[in-house]
Write a structure and sequence with these properties.
about 140 residues, alpha/beta, Nucleotidyltransferase, domain 5, 4 helices, about 35% helix
Length: about 140
Amino acid sequence: MAIDFEEALDSAEPELSSGMNTTPLIDVLLVLLVMFIITIPIQLHSVNMEMPAGLPPPPNTVPLVVRIEVTEQNQVLWNDEPLGGSAPLELRLRAAAQLAQQPEIHIRSHPLARYDAVAAVLSASQRLGLQKIGVVGLDVYAR
């Protein structure tokens, strides 16, 4: 009795696979990959820039600086020029305040100068409408 192998293969039940079916997983991953490729923005070889419109800004101008110094003897100097009291100081501060572009006022005092002399210069500068007032450090008097 001869057994035909072809009949035996046809009649036998298929063998069960114990592994996971990965076909649906691969299908889902391919769909996600296609969706990702579609949603990527198109790359352009140009750079979009917003250029300023209108006239260019005016060139930077170096501000005028006025150095006011109160010496050890409470004498007020305007750019190293001695003033004879508070009246000439107020005249010069008033003239500086009326300029179209106000100068920077740098006030420096000697460590032994009286406080009221320095305070008078500060208050006169502020009272006359100067906007750019600064007290400069004492590094010139360091020994």
